[in-house]
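quick one before i forget lol
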Amino acid sequence: MTVFMGLLFSLSLYTGGSLSLQSIIATAMKFVLAYFILKTVGTRFVETYINVVVFLAAVSLIGYIIDVMHLFDGLIAKLPTVGEMGYEGVLYTFRHKYHPDRNNSIFFEPGAYQGFLNAALFLIVFARTGFANKKKWIYLTILTTALITTTSTTGFVIFSILYGLFLYKSKLASFSQKVVSIGLAILLTGLFAAKFHSVIVVKLDSYLNPSVARQGWSAENRSFDAKTDLKIFKKHVFGLGYEEYRKEFSAIGRVDATEGSSNGVTSMFANYGLPYALFIFASYYWALRRLLGEIFLTTAAYIMFILFLWGESYYQLAPISLSIIAAAFVYSRIPVKDKLQDGEGNVQQA
């Protein structure tokens, strides 16, 4: 925490106050808040988190069906509006203006929602919980179905990594169950090949080969934003601070990008500079290593987290992200994963 605050104060001095004292205090408070929540909830946090996200997923599936089938139009039109984005239901935003055919749940976009779904899936598969195996499979089904309805490219890529980990490392399923899951995955991919092609192949091509003609689309935006961040970073290796970063990004970035980059990884370097960015990203890895134990699983989890931040800059220093680091202090003596369960629910050493 001392290093964390020291680097922020140094950056504030270096940038002449562009990173304000209020921002530093707010960031510190986020970390403290995450720490005390974890400390208060204790070992119940994992199960509580999973239960909450599964409940949100179940509600969002109902809302999604109502949206795609255009049910209850008259009733929904009478609901309170959420800005200009849609109508506020019970833990669901109906008729989302920008993503009408995708499952947003209560989030501003599906790309944010998928991060919470994938995190819950990871915890079910690899964390110690008191859930019976039958309940785990019900939860996995609900979460995976909700994830599919987000049609998030990043979400699908992260899930692919998680699915590979599940096949290779998890003892939750027997060998025959894993074979069945592979067959089901192949079947679903074949049935929805056109959709998966547009969501994954086309989007990834847009990430890697952004077109100026399609500027404004999410994939192109993130690629262009990353390039802008790197230009700023090359000029200001030790960071600019938020205010100066925002001004420079507005001057040389996308026309409609006035608040900064959509890329949470590159904007960390451009905004906060090399020392702090390396420190915070190294802290995330250290925390995951401390919690998960083994290098292979830690590295895979870290890559998934970085992929999430790559498309969601809002979460680079959000309480939910900082809770990863805080958890390493709260659960330092009881790692999240030190044992795995086999297909019959018996506990085995990892």
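fyi Residues 2-349 form one domain.
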